[in-house]
Amino acid sequence: MSTRVMLLRRWAVAALVAATALPAHASAQQCSAAVLRDASISPASIAFSTPTVVDFDNQGIVYGSVVTVNITSSLWILPLSWSLCVNADTPNLGSSQGVSKPLTDLQVELMDGNWRPITSTQQRLRTGNGNATVQLRVRMRLSWDADPPGTFGTVLRFTVGS
User: Fold this and answer.
1) Is residue 125 packed enough to be buried (19+ CB in 10 Å), middle (13-18) or exposed (0-12)?
2) What is the pLDDT of residues 21-78, one digit of tens each?
3) Are strands 154-161 and 17-23 parallel, antiparallel or unpaired?
4) From 42, 59, 93, 123, which residue has the greatest number of CB atoms within 10 Å?
5) Does the predicted TM-score (pTM) go above 0.90?
6) How far apart are the C-alpha atoms of 100 and 86, rounded to whole Å?
7) Any idea of the CA torsion for 33, 35, 41, 46, to the nearest 10 degrees?
8) What is the count of structural domains for the chain?
9) CATH code at 52?
10) Helix or strand run (H / E) with residue 103
């Protein structure tokens, strides 16, 4: 049995990512406080499947479903401008065997092929006017050499502001 297969059998990446869509608050760095803007997100939580040899060879695993953020941003019939931001609540994805998994190994993509690493500070993903639906994918970067077996995760915070 190869070393890769043995490592894979010991690996359990259940990077649980609880994603919540919240209105912006005053301390937001990229999304300033905004009234009359709200969002819902589906699915509300993400759990990656156990990575396969192919996932490690491809250096990542993509969550199986598209994540949808529905933004409501209007005053009666008047559309209001908005920004959608994302950040993680932790500085890394946790540690195993004394090794911390970098937060930047968790990435989002707005269906445009451009993967953006997650950080603990807010990043603006998209702006718009009025009600909108934003779809994105989430992936976890994997490394045969750098990732010890373990369970890793964080909380993603999606914020809608002006």
Assistant:
1) buried
2) 444 443 445 676 567 788 899 999 999 999 999 999 999 999 999 999 999 998 888 9
3) parallel
4) 93
5) no
6) 21
7) 30
8) 1
9) 2.60.40
10) none
